[in-house]
Amino acid sequence: MPMSDTNLSSLVVRAQTGDRAAYDDIVLRFQDMAVGYASALLGDFHLAEDAAQEAFVGAWTELPRLHKPAAFPGWFKRIVFMRCSRVLRKRQTVAIEHAAAIEHAAAESLAGSDPVEELESRDEKARVMGAIGRLPDEERMATLLYYISTYTHREVGSFLGLSASTVNNRLRSARKRLRKEMLKMAEREIPGQAPSRDDRFAQRIASLLQPDDLKTERYQYGIEAVDGHQAWALFCASGAGDLARVSAMLDRDPRLVNAQYWYQFPIHMAVREGHAEVVQLLLQAGADPGQSRYTYNSWDKLLDISQERGFNSVQALLEAAMRERFGYDPAFEELEDAIKSRDQARVEAVLAARSDLIHASDALGNGPLHWAVITRQNDLVDIFVARGASLEARRADGQTPLLVSLNGDYWFRSRDLPAEAPKDTWVITRHLLACGAEYALSVACAAGDEERVDAVLASNPVLARTLDHCRRSPLAYAAGRGHTQIVEKLLDLGADPNLPEENAPRGGALFGACSGNHIVTAKLLLERGADPNAEVDSSGSCLTTVEYNHGTDGHRMQAMLHEYGAVTPPFAMVDDSELERAVREGGAVVSHPQFLHELMGRNNAELINVFLDSTPDVGDLFRLTDIWGGNYPSDPNTIRALASHGLDLCRANWIGRTFLHGCAEKGDVEAARVFLELGADIDAIELEYGGTPLAAAARSGKAEMVRFLLDQGADPNAPAESVWAQPLYWAEKEGHGKVVALLRDRMNGG
Fold first, then answer.
1. Beta bridge partners of residue 541, listed in sequence order
2. Burial call 20-35: b when 16+ CB within 10 Å, e when fewer
């Protein structure tokens, strides 16, 4: 399909905001151009299709960074060029294997057709490509791009960055070099290689863009299910800064504002790119990064990003929202430090100087009472209550001090406490209640107070199936402490043991009962339909929590779970032979979300080969995983085996992180060497930190990896437009002196 400039810019703008239909149109318009250009560089249409496919997928990821939509042709040409450069760097053995596969496919295609015609056609193609391959570079490119489709001189020139007259001159010169008969053959053969001859190429691209988890109309990660397609579109629109599209999508479904994917929300995309107006709109619509699981990517991380990148307007918006929602004040840090130091005199001195800090909080919304509870200091609770601190103050994740006393804090554990701190958290809980904290249903369920539970439910039975401020269920509080009678009351009132709640997309009640080895409670929940394979984020499954917390004392519980259909998850298969048996038998564990992560984490070449024997083409299976949760194959032979089975080594996860980024962070030079030999992009940009693998190595202080990547041609100044993402910035920030010296020496020509 020939290109048209009339609506290219508008198509690009729409695609930047996650409009898949617009990007599909761009693919259709540029597919022949991309393959023609790649074949001019590679001399092979099969390799050219692969490179062009990678380029389209990479362009989709990077498209929000294109500031001038009209510049798309030249910008995209550079991406195709980089993909082709990686192909040319591949080892000869890979090229030979690829050629052999092509020959095999060609031989198979002879079946059912006239062998003489097929051989003649292949001979003609070879002669045409041979003749075109002998043309000067600039004539070869113009010829292939012109003849592969119905592109005009102006369209070819727009892609190559040339005037239409220059293209015309190069074509005229090429025609003179090619004999008349060869020119006729070229006119016949080259269009036959165009992707536009059918819809196969475009369909392949379409299947490679959106994360698989989001390809559903009912996507469940947070508490509420949303349309995954719309959620992904909002992520893209927020990253692209398309205020109108973000507004329209939120008008249609306000819940999308807190659609969560891997601990992140649309606001994370807008903050990273510095789109202040979109950040403001999302905040006004209720964007709440405090809902990020475990507050892993909460307000504090967003604030750091805006500060590091110099996005002053975004920083001001975030700080204003944090002040309004939970009293954030940077000056609170001094009071927080005094509380954690258990220095009561210093606490009093800080409050004497700044009495208003009694109502302030840190970047996660922890106020004075939250920190007194976290550090288990009842004397400070009394001081703060006397000074007017609110017992019902909610921090960023919705927890009041009382709820924190029950649930603990992810970032400050009991191991961080001194010996004199109370071991029994109920000492803190009871004290807060005595001070006047609300005796809510959650607390009564956790305490096993049936009288209080009955009173609350009598006044409002709906509360039995309602999550509390921090998105946890009364059922989970009761089951986790083994209060079976309360669990039964709640179930009788319609409580759903599989209701999605914080960190537990299939409910937390059974997991809690298993963690406490409360077998009677667990049996009741299973009889009422609780999912025996329910998991809690980062904490394992019902089966594994029994093993972890109770060892052999939990065998009865585990046996009961198995009776109800529990399956041992891959991360619990300590012995590689157990994982191998599951692979050979095709067990359900192979489809577990953590299977690939675990398989790669073992780094057992024999085990991976067993898997490959049963899965000859891993291309679709590995298509859009989250780079296996950070794991990557490090054994060189394993990497090559995976590549030969269809693994795309250039594949990035949903925020641009590649295998090479993982290698770089860990300083795994040998694995990085193989990835580069097989075509990995040495200057790939990921979105979270905005940097290349070299920047990842510099951030982690891996000096040998930094030296290796520099020797391999990594650009120490990439990305040029973002100093805060460059290797030197991170090396200096993290204090890695040796890395700083290496980078400065190379940047100065050393």
1. 535
2. bebbbbbbbbbbbbbb
Single-letter amino acid code for the residue at 419: A
Distance, CA of 684 to CA of 661 (rounded, Å): 8
What six digits make up the tokens of 455?
């009173």
- The residue among 634 and 475 whose pLDDT is bigger is 475
- Is the pLDDT reported for residue 551 higher than 80? yes
| pLDDT (tens digit per residue) in 575-631 | 888 888 888 887 677 777 778 778 878 778 888 888 888 776 665 555 434 555 667
Taking the C-alpha atoms of residue 703 and residue 300, their distance in angstroms, rounded to an integer, is 29
**Residue 421 CB-density burial (10 A; 0-12 exposed, 13-18 middle, 19+ buried):** middle
Q: Give yes or no for a contact between 256 and 230, defined as CB atoms under 8 angstroms apart.
A: yes
Quick one: what percent of the chain has pLDDT higher than 90? 50
Q: Write the DSSP assignment of 536-605 as a string of letters.
A: ETTTEEHHHHHHHHHGGGGHHHHHHHHHTT----GGG--SHHHHHHHHHHT-GGGGSTTHHHHHHHHT-H
CA 680 to chain centre: 19
Q: Which of 544, 469, 524, 528 is nearest to 501 (CA)?
A: 469
- Kind and range of the H or E run holding 479: helix 474-480
pLDDT recorded at residue 102: 34
Q: pLDDT per residue over 90-110, tens digit each?
A: 533 333 333 333 333 333 433
Lowest mean pLDDT, pick from 183-187, 386-390, 466-470, 547-551: 183-187
Around 341, how many Cα atoms within 13 Å sit in the side-chain half-sphere? 12
Contacts of 363 (CB under 8 A, 6+ apart): 298, 299, 300, 303, 322, 328, 396
Q: Which of the four pLDDT bands, split at 50, 70 and 90, describes residue 665? A: very high
Mean pLDDT of 644-673: 85
Q: With CA atoms as reference, report the closest residue to 555 among 510, 497, 514, 511.
A: 514
Helix (H) or strand (E) holding 535: strand 535-536
Question: 318: buried, middle or exposed (CB in 10 Å: 19+, 13-18, 0-12)?
Answer: buried
Judged by DSSP in three states, 303 sits in helix
Nearest residue to 159 via CA among 8, 310, 319, 269: 8
pLDDT at 688: 84
Give the model confidence (pLDDT) of 333-351 as tens digits: 999 999 999 999 999 999 9
Q: What tens digit of pLDDT does each residue of 493-519 get?
A: 999 999 999 999 999 999 999 999 999
Distance CA 182, CA 175 (A): 9
C-alpha to C-alpha distance for 403 and 647, rounded to whole angstroms: 46
State the residue for tokens 């030249």: 74
Residue 663 φ/ψ, nearest 5 degrees: -60, -45
To which H or E segment does residue 627 belong? none
- Residue 46 β-bridge partners: none
Nearest to 204 by CA among 417, 360, 52: 52
**Angle made by CA atoms 649, 192, 31, in degrees to the nearest 5:** 45
Structure tokens at 38: 């790649």
Chain centroid to CA 685: 14
Q: Which residues contact 730 (CB under 8 A, 6 or more apart)?
A: 689, 691, 695, 698, 699
Q: How confident is the model at residue 255 (pLDDT cuts 50, 70, 90)?
A: very high
The encoded tokens of residue 671 equal: 């694995």
Query: What's the half-sphere exposure (Cβ side, CA atoms, 13 Å) at 285?
Result: 26
593 prior amide bond cis, ω within 30: no
